Here is the input.
Amino acid sequence: MVKLYYMMMTILVIFSCSHKTDSSPEPLLTSDTIPGTPGYVWTQELPFGNGSFPEEWKRGTFPLGLIPVKAFGGDLWMSWSKYAWSSPDGLKWELNNKTDWGERISISIVYFKNKMWMTGGMGYKERKFMNDIWSTSDGKTWTNVGNAAWSPRKGHTVVVFRDKLWLFGGSTGVLADFSPTNFLNDVWSSDDGIQWKLVTSTTPWSPSEYPMVVVFNDMMYMLGGYMKSGIWKSADGIKWEQLDAETEWQPRSDYGALVYDQKMWVFGGRDTSSNHNTAAKNDVWYSTDGAQWTRQIEHAAWTVRSGANSIVFKDKIWIFSGKHTGGKYNWGGDIWTMGKNH
Here is the structure.
């Protein structure tokens, strides 16, 4: 069972002039972890208003709604149909023209064997599901290397594990409001990103869009999925051990799931409530084994939002805005990091 503690939020505003310009925000540091849990500090790197959507991107902002990938030279990359953005520090972003793979949503991009790989997704206007594969060695020139053996889909998860790419689940249908339907729970693997082999057509965990698979201690952990919170682990993608049918952090969607500081982390998203104004979350949870979870904080310093626009970079967790469902700002354009409280 999760450890429950009485919590008091303490917000510390630190004023510093070092390495700041007149337009740079002062960092908001918080040490609001629950007593007895490890000390970590949330820092507001950039306030609201510092992001813009890809199709109307403004210089000096970061691209909203895209998933960051750590790639060439350790830089961060965010990729869209016609453009890609790169950043050495997560704050200053450079626009790059790139090969156009067409406007689509719910793709997966990973860095593997010195290339970025983009797979699948759904054409937004025509609602066409895809299974094509694109790769690049520089983030700008992308090559269509063919279609995968797995069926067209969106919202699938791809991770690197034991020198292979592994693909999990996704969906093959959408409703009028673009809500996903027709979920999958198959598993595929590839040695080279091009040729894919079926590992299993069905897993013991239920079909899901965005099955939240992370790699931790040489195992693959499935940390819930779309409106799910069950925990499973596997060493081969075939045999899965269930660690918990439903965790203390409860079923949710659009949340962040990362590995950082020898722990698995889950944060943000929204729960199963039909009222989006109350469903949105800003809690943070961690686990060292997947079976026992501790709530590190009930309400983080950042406002309620989805947490999937996140990554571990420069020994910190980074959250690039996210969708502020239920919050004052829908896509606020702020950046937050969490690091160790030395």
Summary: The longest helix spans residues 276-279. Helices lie at 276-279. The chain has one helix and 31 strands. Residues 1-31 have pLDDT under 50 and may be disordered.
